[in-house]
Amino acid sequence: MEGKKVFQSQNKSRLAILSLSNMMSVPSSVVAVIQLKVPDAIFQGGSNVALSAAEILAVALPNGGGEPDNLERILRLLTSYDIFEEHLCSNGVRKFSLTEIGKCLATDEEGLSYSPYVLQHNQDAYMRAWPCLKDAVENPSVEPFRKVNGGEHAMKYYTNPNQIALFNKAFIGMTSPFMREVLEFYDGFKEVQTLVDVGGSTGVSLSLIMDKFPNITKGINFDLPQILASAPQLPGITHVAGDATEFVPSGDAVMMKWLCSGFSDDECRKMMKNCHKALPADGKLIICDPVLPELTDESTRTKAILGGDVFMMTMYGTKKTRTEKQFKELGIAAGFSRFSVFYIDSYLVFMEFHN
Ligand SMILES: C[S@@+](CC[C@H](N)C(=O)[O-])C[C@H]1O[C@@H](n2cnc3c(N)ncnc32)[C@H](O)[C@@H]1O
What we know:
Blueprint: H1 2-21, H2 25-35, H3 38-43, E1 51-52, H4 53-60, H5 68-80, E2 84-88, E3 94-98, H6 100-103, H7 115-121, H8 124-127, H9 133-138, H10 144-148, H11 161-182, E4 194-198, H12 204-212, E5 218-223, H13 225-228, E6 237-241, E7 253-257, H14 265-278, E8 284-292, H15 300-316, E9 322-323, H16 324-333, E10 338-342, E11 348-354
Parallel strand pairs: 4-5, 4-7, 5-6, 7-8, 8-9
Antiparallel strand pairs: 1-3, 2-3, 8-11, 10-11
């Protein structure tokens, strides 16, 4: 009996290692199905009718070609990760529909999805850096991304219009559904008149916040000049170009969403000090960022946050994801004295800093 228990536990461990060893097949398969437009071929504006690999290829590659058996192998793998649902027909044909996770990859009525984010995180310049992860430990002075991309910093890499377009699309695709949902529950903008969004990309968060909170009469979208160069004009919003480590425009509330984890403690403290300077005595800084739990667990949330953290370390160098305590300490060092946290979304947490 005891021997059987030991065997079962070793068997489970061996299986786990086999699964981890081929983990690369998972993001690569997600990228492949996005490139082949499989989610859109199945979703078809919301019908989500189960299709076989051959039927998917007939939509995805209308000029013919493609190997249905290979596509089916990819779809079966992703079914085991709950991206597709498999339907085994009585004639032996396997069909696939999208699960709730898979639907995040299909283009919605506004032309948005999470697919650009997946493509952005798996593009060649990033993929080249992963085999050098060990160097981030041995020689952290130059992050793997720079080492393999001719010394170019990941942020500088976004001077190419195609890269900027993918980057912006990735964040709009993630931000829009997130903002729509959380604004039903988070009311921290209700007394604000002028809101500054630091690192606001093309201004989409600000625009959604201002739609929901018409008390905000002036929105300032603050981002790097190369990102703002392609930002659309939005009602009530002024785009201001600059670097938050040097300066932040004034408002009665300042938001930094998904920005701090891209910066070292020193840079983050500088940015928060600049936010403090930009606020009146009764103003507030709202940070919305992934927050690490103090204790590591096996939840999907912790895996998503830690995966993002190692991604930042590999691509951007010293930057890091922080715990609630670390954010609070940075806030105090920047001049804030009160701190409150709102866990509404499972990934991005709202934190308010007051004088
Ligand atoms: C991860 S994106 C988040 C975009 C947006 N806030 C969102 O949540 O979708 C980070 C943004 O910060 C901007 N950014 C990076 N460094 C910055 C700096 N020093 N000053 C101002 N903005 C910066 C980037 O250009 C990018 O638009």
